[in-house]
Amino acid sequence: QVQLMESGGALVQTGGSLRLSCVASDRTFNFHEMAWFRQAPGKEREFVASINWDSGSTNYADEVKGRFTISGDTGKNMEFLQMNSLKPEDTAVYFCAGRRFGGKFDYWGQGTQVTVSS
Q1: Is 63 helix (H, G, I), strand (E, B) or coil?
Q2: pLDDT for res 62
Q3: Distances from the Cα of 68 to the Cαs of 36, 106, 107, in angstroms?
Q4: 72-104, pLDDT tens digit by residue?
Q5: DSSP 3-state assignment of 57?
Q6: Pairwise CA distance, residues 34 & 105, whole Å
């Protein structure tokens, strides 16, 4: 079973930036799409951004458009989330996820904590 591992979470001040990374244990695993989700304390997990491995197209939640940028390296099965202009409401555990063509997001990392202080 391929595993995903996130890194890059930290404590940052409002207005700051962070770059999250996610790597798959199997670089040859054929993901169709990878994404970032987040879960704040007391809230449900929510979608943040996704990138289609085949087309390169991206999607973003309205709350992060213009501030976050998702990118990836298909050859290394890695994805990144550049987060700028961070706000306290961005505080959450951020999860990396992946799905195969026709499947659901069945592959998840353990999460990395992002805390934005006001």
Answers
A1: helix
A2: 98
A3: 11, 23, 22
A4: 998 888 999 999 999 999 999 999 999 999 999
A5: coil
A6: 8
